[in-house]
């Protein structure tokens, strides 16, 4: 369904170019839940922006359902890493979540039901009339998640969506994502820094190298489909997988670091 | 803030300035320099009565129409120009050209093209009051937050919905800055528009007073202008607080002035 | 100026604020001919578009003398502004068929005389001033009803266009716009100033009470120089046209055709009195000036 | 590097081309209007005639003297107004008390037309450049001040808190936080004020009669030299365009970090 | 050294008040490293703002070295949760880190050395000339950390400072904080959502209840002073402690939730 081929992105900045992503190739099947991990600055956000058609890649292609992505496709929702800036400060929490549905001309009653359900599922049913800037960081992030969930997209891109919430909420939200994924058959690409999370959530984990970025590893997560926070995380296979990913990330971070630095120094000259 | 404190803030500095002015003009015999008491008397006798209905109200009517169009046009053009780079490149030099033309030479031209009527006077008001709104809107549109913009795009919010739900609110703080400027500039141009091809109006009357050496009356006319400006500012503040309440919350601006 | 020869430091510097039109040509001629220097005056001429700048400058003493139309000076006198008329400046030509100020209408306008203007729209450069006062007086004298006319303010340069576009039915203009209007096919229905009085003093030179009292020698010197200048101008119309070309932007071909005003050395007291009474009648002033003290 | 530069020159040239295209279009309409008899060419001469007259002006030293005089009042007036507005704006803007206390007075004074102040200016300063300056400064001061006040209100709460928590005092915050935040607003204020200052410089010359383009415009108006008048007006407009060009160049430099400018480079 | 007594904060909003913090009392000794955990929206950020003198509490007191905090004290540095907004977009990375030192009139050479060291310690020595908006989320967050580190404060308040960085970088930064803490004797209050992190880093962990907030637990972390990522985390005591904190947070989250909702509903009416 989603196919990324030889994706390269070079940011043109005064004083030299920054090659954020060098060469990424991978596929997502319809209804897959894939986690993406990689060192800070490895180009995960960049990749998501290219996939969602918000930014033009320098070379390579992104295809969705067989057709090239040139602009933001309908039926795709993105949860941005900069959650604070992705909410409209002039709208209440409720209006923020409702807006994409309103724009899709979803009937009022159905809209209300979707919004209520989404807000409830992220534990924010008590603040619909608040404005985003009246909320804590974690609450803001959950509003952004609720907006994506209420939208019922076919493809969901999430960029570290749980970074600002507490451990318990995080666990709840992880289960929420898996539930939605299973119920609605949505295809999910989920960026996270939490290795346990990537293994717990994903059917596959893609590990990116550090910048300039390539796919370092594409790991199948062969855990049972039914997962729960206590038992799944206690499975020996879970431990194995998380250790494996951890090692990969360490390798990613240590490995090409020198190469990266020299490359950027070169670019800066 | 208590109403009393609010009133105190409202009148303190003006009263202080009037006292200073009174003290400075106390011994003055200069014909052109007004004195507070004389001015207050003149203000009353000059503007309360027929003149209010014959000169002030029609002027205010034209001002209202002019400001409405200046603001509406400024916003609409600003949104278009700000979000379309080729349009901006095409129009910017031309607009800058017109922006620099002084009203005293622009008015005869408008007279020629539009005629001698209220339409011409309204056009003069628009020709000056549009710029702050237009420029602020253009600059605001150019600077909208990139993450918010991406959010809109990714949820397929485009066209009119994008303007309505994203661009307009996002730019509203800057639009408001422009509108506030436009109010006083509109008032100034209302005066200038009545300096030509006119026979009534607040601006016409002020100029008549000036030419006929009715100096206290002239100053009283200027005070009327100031008071109208103040009135507009109060209305504006009321509107702004409602339109920008989210912004003031976001920026942690406490308003109680 | 600053590079004046050693002998000239005896000269008294004097600045006159004028409007750069044909009316003030004698002053320029007088400067050119050295009439002011002869009287011990080092003359500087400053220009402005109207009284808004000239009157305050004279009041503040920045200028010693200024040029203004007579009705403005009557209004100032009426309002108690300490201005003093010191010298005549310019007057109508004494010819009802050719003067420097005229009421013009469109070539195909049905309006033939001032009396036909009832209920129509007429422009002047400045309302409640000399132009509408003389027009009203002439209209009422001819049996029209000046109160039925709506007067609007249009500057002289823009008036002909307003007439042509039908925005006003008639307009009072002065040279060079009279000539230009006639050339473009518009008609004169009245030479307004001459119609009011064949020899109407239209404008004057004035000073402030403080200046007059501060230097009792100054005004007589200025008057003496002005007298010579006005006489010279009256006697040398070609010199007048030549000098106008130096301080105005009137195209030479137009300048050759314009009607020059008269440059009298004395006021026509009767005409000024009548003008004052008309100003009173039409509400321009609250009391008519006492001509014996108003004029020098 | 070289490649990049030529790539950057592409859109720049295109922008310039579009801008010139806009102006040419305007001239064509202007040329056509009197030629087609929409307005009489005695009152609005065709563009070509006015341009020819302007071309003639450009070769005259006196014209350039007038331009210099006008630009002198403009630059001085704008500089004084800007500096004054920045100082006053930063003082008022960073104190809630002053903001509230001055509100009435500012709103009362702003709509007073500069032209109404001409008699007063002449009374105080005579017909010297100071009179012109007073009018220019009075009119353009408010534009800068108001924009600055709105700019100061735009300071990000978190950025301001950050500065406070690191012990940046009031002055340091003005310099490192408030100033950069307000700068985009200030630039707009400056562009507004630059045009107003030019307008007032010319209007003051026109009415008071101090030397400069305005006085020439008054002379050509009074003399019925209509093409010359429009040529001078054209010159005024062109000065406005050049001023804006300069403002844009300054803006590119001082606001390179700002979304309005950086957004145009990236992508 | 730092003493919080009966702290209460009520946000006044149109349509009702929000009692973010009800009653907080705790102390930090000089040179202590305390972690603060609590559910999303429990008032951690609010508390930090009150301690740093950026916001006035509704009641209660904050004392630093015996004197009441009324404005931001010198020698205190804060790393804000909204790292993106706390960096100045008009300054380069280097200038951002340097600014507080410049303001303190630290001599140029010393300043340069401090900035270089701080940037190096967070792994950002290759991008000093970039602007914050040219960096990834994790990189921005590290700039904010570098700024605090370079400042050499006596008291360091950090609000979820590692939320946006990858696991490996996070581990490195944790060790960095402990090193700085030990070397410079700085007093640190560290807000985190990562329970393991709180136990690994802190000498004490304070658990907040959910809103309206009180101190639910103040736990001494009796792990050896020398900690390292591999061994410490493997200690049985570590496991015990983390389970304890986890249970507490779960309790915090589940416990007063109904109370919280009713309270806020009341306020909204
Ligand atoms: N607008 C930009 N201009 C220049 N460089 C940029 C820009 N945006 C990102 N980069 C660079 O591209 C690289 C990848 O950034 P990106 O935000 O995609 O990383 P990331 O994987 O999302 O990191 P993180 O986990 O920290 O969010 C970084 O080196 C960053 O500095
Ligand atoms: N400006 C504000 N106006 C109104 N309410 C606010 C404001 N700021 C915070 N709150 C409320 O105060 C409570 C505590 O917020 P705070 O940001 O302190 O939580 P937090 O513990 O930092 O949460 P998180 O872990 O999600 O960052 C929340 O319920 C929030 O909605
Ligand atoms: O202030 N103005 O007169 O334009
Ligand atoms: Mg990222
Ligand atoms: Mg927080």
From TrEMBL, chains A, E:
Sorted UniProt keywords: ATP-binding, Nucleotide-binding, Transport
Listed name of the protein: ABC transporter ATP-binding protein
One annotated GO molecular function: ATP binding
Pfam families: ABC_tran
SMART domains with a match to the protein in the record: AAA (SM00382)
CDD domains in the record: ABC_NrtD_SsuB_transporters (cd03293)
Domain ABC transporter per the UniProt entry, residue ranges: 5-235
Annotated InterPro entries: AAA+_ATPase, ABC_transporter-like_ATP-bd, ABC_transporter-like_CS, ABC_transporter_ATP-bind, P-loop_NTPase
Gene3D superfamilies associated with the record: P-loop containing nucleotide triphosphate hydrolases
TrEMBL record, chain B:
A GO cellular-component term linked to this record: plasma membrane
InterPro entries: MetI-like, MetI-like_sf
Protein's recorded name: ABC transporter permease
PROSITE patterns reported in the protein's UniProt record: ABC_TM1
Segments passing through the bilayer: 7-24, 63-84, 105-134, 183-206, 218-239
Pfam families for the chain: BPD_transp_1
UniProt keyword Transport, yes or no: yes
Protein species of origin: Cryobacterium serini
Annotated family: Belongs to the binding-protein-dependent transport system permease family.
Topology in the lipid bilayer: Multi-pass membrane protein
From TrEMBL, chain D:
GO biological process, one term: transmembrane transport
Domain ABC transmembrane type-1 residues, every copy: 67-251
Keyword Mitochondrion in record: no
Lineage: Bacteria, Bacillati, Actinomycetota, Actinomycetes, Micrococcales
Transmembrane segments: 12-30, 74-94, 115-141, 185-208, 229-250
Keywords: Cell membrane, Membrane, Transmembrane, Transmembrane helix, Transport
Identification of the protein by name: ABC transporter permease
Main subcellular localisation: membrane
Family classification: Belongs to the binding-protein-dependent transport system permease family.
Keyword Transport: yes
Gene Ontology cellular component terms for the protein in this record: plasma membrane
A Pfam family recorded for this sequence: BPD_transp_1
Bilayer topology term: Multi-pass membrane protein
Gene3D superfamilies found in the cross-reference section: MetI-like (1.10.3720.10)
InterPro entries: MetI-like (IPR000515), MetI-like_sf (IPR035906)
Taxonomic source organism: Cryobacterium serini
Protein's cellular compartments: Cell membrane
């Amino acid at each position: 369904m989603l196919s990324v081929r030889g994706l390269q992105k070079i940011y043109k900045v005064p004083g030299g170019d920054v090659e954020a992503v060098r060469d990424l190739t991978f596929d997502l099947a319809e209804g897959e839940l894939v986690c993406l991990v990689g060192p800070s600055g490895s180009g995960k956000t960049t990749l998501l922006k290219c996939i969602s058609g918000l930014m033009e890649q320098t070379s390579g292609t992104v295809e969705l359902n067989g057709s090239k992505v040139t602009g933001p496709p309908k039926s795709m929702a993105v949860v941005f890493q900069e959650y604070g800036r992705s909410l409209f400060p002039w709208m209440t929490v409720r209006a923020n979540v409702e807006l994409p549905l309103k724009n899709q001309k979803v009937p009022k009653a159905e809209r209300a039901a979707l919004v209520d359900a989404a807000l409830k599922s992220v534990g924010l049913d008590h603040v619909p009339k608040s404005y985003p800037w009246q909320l804590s960081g974690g609450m803001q992030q959950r509003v952004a998640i609720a907006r994506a969930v209420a939208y019922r997209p076919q493809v969901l891109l999430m960029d570290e969506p749980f970074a600002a919430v507490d451990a318990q909420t995080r666990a709840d939200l992880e289960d929420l994502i898996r539930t939605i994924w299973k119920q609605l058959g949505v295809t999910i690409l989920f960026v996270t820094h939490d290795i346990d999370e990537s293994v717990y959530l994903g059917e596959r984990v893609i590990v990116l190298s550090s910048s300039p970025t390539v796919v370092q590893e594409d790991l199948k997560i062969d855990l049972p489909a039914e997962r729960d926070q206590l038992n799944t995380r206690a499975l020996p296979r879970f431990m194995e997988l998380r250790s494996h990913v951890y090692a990969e990330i360490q390798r990613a971070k240590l490995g090409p670091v020198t190469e990266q630095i020299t490359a950027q120094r070169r670019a800066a000259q | 803030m208590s109403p009393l404190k609010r009133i105190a803030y409202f009148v303190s500095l003006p009263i202080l300035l009037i006292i200073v002015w009174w003290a400075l003009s106390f011994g003055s015999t200069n014909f052109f320099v007004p004195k507070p008491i004389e001015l207050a008397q003149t203000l009353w006798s000059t503007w309360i009565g027929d003149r209010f209905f014959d000169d002030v109200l029609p002027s205010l009517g034209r001002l209202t129409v002019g400001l409405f169009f200046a603001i509406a046009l400024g916003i609409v053009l600003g949104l278009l120009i700000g979000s379309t780079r080729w349009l901006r490149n095409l129009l910017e030099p031309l607009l800058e050209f017109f922006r620099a033309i002084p009203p005293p030479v622009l008015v005869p031209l408008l007279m020629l093209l539009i005629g001698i009527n209220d339409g011409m006077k309204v056009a003069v008001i628009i020709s000056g009051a549009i710029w702050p709104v237009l420029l602020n809107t253009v600059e605001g549109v150019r600077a909208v937050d990139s993450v918010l913009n991406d959010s809109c795009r990714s949820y397929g919010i485009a066209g009119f919905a994008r303007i309505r739900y994203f661009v307009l609110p996002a730019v509203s703080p800057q639009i408001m800055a422009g509108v506030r400027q436009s109010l006083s500039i509109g008032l100034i141009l209302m005066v200038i528009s009545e300096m030509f091809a006119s026979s009534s109006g607040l601006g016409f009357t002020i100029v008549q007073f000036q030419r006929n050496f009715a100096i206290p009356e002239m100053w009283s006319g200027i005070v009327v202008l100031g008071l109208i400006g103040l009135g507009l500012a109060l209305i504006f503040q009321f509107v702004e607080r409602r339109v920008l309440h989210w912004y003031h919350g976001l920026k942690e601006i406490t308003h109680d002035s | 100026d600053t590079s004046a020869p050693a002998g000239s430091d005896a000269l008294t510097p004097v600045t006159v604020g004028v409007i750069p039109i044909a009316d003030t040509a004698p002053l320029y001629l007088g400067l050119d001919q050295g009439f002011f220097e002869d009287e011990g005056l080092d003359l500087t001429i400053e220009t402005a578009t109207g009284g808004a700048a000239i009157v305050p400058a004279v009041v503040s003493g920045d200028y010693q003398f200024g040029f203004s139309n007579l009705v403005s000076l009557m209004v100032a006198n009426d309002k108690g502004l300490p201005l003093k008329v010191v010298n005549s400046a310019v007057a109508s030509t004494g010819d009802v068929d050719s003067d420097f100020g005229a009421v013009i209408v469109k070539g195909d306008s049905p309006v033939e005389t001032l009396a036909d203007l009832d209920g129509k729209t007429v422009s002047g450069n400045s309302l409640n001033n000399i132009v509408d006062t003389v027009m009203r007086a002439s209209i009422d004298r001819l049996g029209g009803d000046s109160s039925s006319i709506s007067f609007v303010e249009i500057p002289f340069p823009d008036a002909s266009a307003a007439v042509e576009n039908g925005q006003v039915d008639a307009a009072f203009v002065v040279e060079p716009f009279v000539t230009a209007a006639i050339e473009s096919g518009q008609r004169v229905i009245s030479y307004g100033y001459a119609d009011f009085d064949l020899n109407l003093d239209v404008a004057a030179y004035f000073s402030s009470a403080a200046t007059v009292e501060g230097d009792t020698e100054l005004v007589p010197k200025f008057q003496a120089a002005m007298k010579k200048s006005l006489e010279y101008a009256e006697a040398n119309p070609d010199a007048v046209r030549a000098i106008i070309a130096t301080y105005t932007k009137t195209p030479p071909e137009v300048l050759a055709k314009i009607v020059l005003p008269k440059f009298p050395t004395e006021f026509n007291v009767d005409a000024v009195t009548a003008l004052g009474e008309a100003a009173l009648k039409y509400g321009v002033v609250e009391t008519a000036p006492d001509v014996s003290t108003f004029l020098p | 590097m070289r490649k990049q530069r030529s790539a950057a020159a592409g859109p720049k040239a295109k922008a310039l081309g579009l801008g010139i295209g806009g102006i040419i279009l305007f001239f064509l309409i202007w040329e056509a209007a009197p030629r087609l008899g929409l307005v009489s060419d005695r009152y609005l001469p065709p563009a070509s005639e006015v341009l020819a007259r302007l071309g003639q002006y450009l070769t005259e030293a006196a014209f350039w003297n007038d331009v210099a005089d006008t630009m002198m009042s403009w630059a001085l007036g704008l500089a004084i107004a800007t500096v004054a507005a920045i100082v006053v704006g930063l003082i008022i803007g960073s104190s809630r008390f002053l903001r509230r206390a001055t509100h009435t007075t500012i709103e009362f004074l702003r709509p007073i037309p500069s032209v109404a102040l001409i008699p007063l200016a002449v009374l105080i300063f005579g017909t010297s450049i100071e009179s012109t300056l007073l009018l220019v400064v009075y009119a353009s001061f408010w534009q800068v001040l108001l924009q600055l006040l709105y700019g100061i209100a735009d300071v990000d709460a978190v950025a301001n808190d950050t500065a406070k928590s690191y012990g940046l005092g009031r002055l340091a915050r003005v310099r490192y936080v408030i100033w950069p935040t307000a700068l985009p607003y200030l630039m707009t204020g400056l562009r507004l004020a630059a045009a107003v200052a030019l307008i007032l410089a010319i209007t003051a010359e026109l009415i008071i009669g101090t030397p400069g383009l305005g006085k020439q415009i008054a002379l050509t108006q009074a003399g019925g030299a209509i093409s010359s008048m429009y040529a001078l007006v054209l010159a005024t407009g062109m000065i406005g365009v050049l001023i804006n060009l300069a403002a844009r160049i300054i803006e590119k430099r001082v606001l390179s970090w700002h979304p309005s400018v950086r957004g145009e480079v990236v992508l």
